[in-house]
Amino acid sequence: MADETNGKLVIIAAGGTGGHMFPARAFADEMRRRGWRVGLISDSRGLHYASDFPAEWKEEVFAASPNFRKPWTLPGAFLKIQAGIGMAKRIMKDKKPALVAGFGGYPAFPALAAAKATKVPILIHEQNAVLGRVNRNMARHASVIASGFERLDRLPAGKTHKAVGNPVRGPILAMRDKPFPSTDEKLTLLVTGGSQGSQIIGEAIPLAIANHIPALLRARLTVIQQVRPEQIDKVRAIYDKVMVDAELAPFFSDMPEKLAAAHLVIARSGAGTVSELAAVGRPSILIPLAIAMDDHQAANAEALTDAGAADMILEANLYPALLGELIAARLSDAEELKQRAAAAKASGKVTAAQDLADLAEAADLH
């Protein structure tokens, strides 16, 4: 790594969830590798996800997400945002960054607004196929707009974006060379529901497997399922009744290995999940979160459905019979599973962090 004391500074503005922090972290690693210094600005919630973030310093600023459905809360939220912008401006004056890179989430807004006010070049990276509220607000002021998918809705008129993909964690990328597992004996179904698990997925999938998959296929099945803590006993009872081998937990720390071992994945279609499925190359059934803003999870899923690598079922259609028939159809056709895995892998953008860093260094030249 180059001597960081002589490098230019990029301030990363991100926060809220791991979905924003994971790609920001991969970008930070790449920029440091190129000799840049890295700082991080977020709020208290964002910094909760940043204990191991690769920055030489981290600064907390006030931030808020205005809730227009509760207008009485707006004055307080706007005062907090203005205070956060003021704090970020002082950081800009002190640190003198060459670039501010925003990765979305409302904690990113104060730093991006301060960059705009102090005329520091802005790069934004949108993980989803629809611009989020903060990135949408700042897009017209950005020198570069990068995106996780070829599709990017809500882009301001006259602006263009570079589809670099979503930077994926190193442990996930390390699984890309793992071959698709043999389908000769056991079949592994991996079920996830996002960082907090999903109640509706936890309810529908055990019933689909227990009641709507042929017994011979069910006997070959190993289910690895993320389940909310309050659902585990009920889900375990359903699988035990039909003698399905199941590993259940609210969280799996070895997700890269579990993803590589899966023959089929059932998951939400958050940007990170879709990008990781493509990076490793595994077929999937995607269930977009119905309440996602601007229906962005359905838009994300299209990256894999259009490639022939995934099926999409909307929450409104999440009936155990329909789901069970689809799972059975996919797991019964080994050749098609392999083709879908190959299609997923072909769609993966595994140089996203490097390509995003190239754009960042070009933006700094202007």
Q: What's the helix and strand layout?
A:
Blueprint: E1 9-13, H1 18-33, E2 37-42, H2 44-48, E3 57-60, H3 74-95, E4 99-102, H4 109-117, E5 122-126, H5 133-138, E6 144-147, E7 162-163, H6 170-173, E8 187-191, H7 199-212, H8 215-219, E9 221-226, H9 232-241, E10 245-249, H10 255-261, E11 264-267, H11 271-280, E12 284-286, H12 296-305, E13 310-312, H13 320-331, H14 334-346, H15 352-364
Provide the spatial order of strands within the biggest beta sheet. 3-2-1-4-5-6-7
Model regions low in confidence, pLDDT < 50 over at least 5 residues: 1-5
The CATH class of the largest domain is identified as Alpha Beta
Q: Using DSSP, what is the number of strands? A: 13
Would you identify the CATH H-level superfamily of the largest domain?
Answer: Glycogen Phosphorylase B
Give the rounded overall mean pLDDT: 93
Shape: elongated
- State the end-to-end distance: 25 Å
Structural class comes to alpha/beta
Largest sheet: 7 strands, parallel
- The number of helical runs is 15
